[in-house]
Design brief:
Blueprint lengths: L4 H11 L16 E6 L12 H4 L9 E7 L6 H7 L19 E6 L2 E7 L4 E3 L4 H20 L1
Antiparallel strand pairs: 1-2, 1-3, 3-4, 4-5
Amino acid sequence: RFCHIQQYANQCFKRGCYVEPEHPQPGDKLDRLLIYQIPHYTCEYRFTDYDYAQSKLKATDYRCSYVANMPRDYTPDKCFRDFNYDDRPCVNSMPSLSVSDLIVMERGDKAEALYVDAVGFKDVSRLLPELHDMEVERQEHNLDELER
């Protein structure tokens, strides 16, 4: 079946797919959206505002629940709206976006991590190195599983 590239991109976003060139060239890094959520009641600051959680925040409390190419001009507010509709991406595999979740937006060589607060977002980019290490470990684990 054939479709326009934008239709394909929208379908990938809905499914939580990250697509990158097989043989990337300089400048081919695509923008990426990652959403991290705390698994089922595993820590005391799940669903709490940033003021309460800030001194307790640890990247290891989170699991990546969504990764996809990020649409151009995507904002945290748009992300919050998109992931709270009934027809949100990955509706059957992840809960809606909520307070204490992390939104990571990678644009080119720049990345920012945002804590979803009761109102608005707080920058928690200090967690990016740990989140990156967790992502690398997850990818290595997935490769090991495929090879078995």
